[in-house]
Amino acid sequence: MKANDLKLIVKEKYGEIATQSKQQNESSCCGATGCCSSVDYTVFSESYNKIEGYNPDADLGLGCGIPTQFAGIRKGDHVLDLGSGAGNDCFVARSIVGDSGRVIGLDFTDAMLAKANENNNKLGFTNVEFVKGDIEEMPLPDKIIDVVVSNCVLNLVPDKDKAFSQIMRVLKPGGHFCVSDVVIKGNLPDKLRKNAEMYAGCVSGAIEMADYIQIIEKQGFKDVTIHKQKEIEIPVAVLTEIMSEKEIADFREENIGIYSITVSGFKN
Predict the structure, then answer these.
(1) Has this prediction a pTM greater than 0.85?
(2) Taking residues 125-129, what's their average pLDDT?
């Protein structure tokens, strides 16, 4: 599938998800026409309930970590959230940067941007802004951001080299990123990958973890650190649909799997 076709699918899918609540996503997948009922986009998500700045209206349960926990955001920082959705991580970041900082959320889905702006209007923040744009070609000037965050979005970007190149471009010297994302460890069999995609939609663009880190380092980021990783357990019921007991046992032994990771890197 061509990159532009992938982007159109992602835009359409998440435009439909934007119209639902977190509870609806949890109980009925994205609830959109043509969406397989077994997909659970919330399988990766973590609880924000005790996080300062958390706004339930902005949480659609689409994350795979809490990148702001490890991002080292400080008061007065300028923060960029890639694939900002309904604004969840932006509002958490706003609670840290305070009145003197600035938070930009970048998303290319109109419905998500509308939801984020609606949430921001209710909160009344004048230093939080939501911008329409493509992560591979960010409509932002060079060297204006202190910290870039993103939550379970970059795996959906077709060209990850371009994405991390753009992150490098918009960061100030000495700035850094901290993203949560989905990666693969080992050679996930094609038939299992297809079933995993039906079980958890965010697997679709995931790549091998070592390749993911290599892309980051190739763009010139230093002190690349994986702060947290968590295996996403695929239910036995999903595995037994396509694998024998022996194949499942071999699969478990080889430590092949799907993981959520939170990783950071610094620009010199």
Answers:
(1) yes
(2) 98
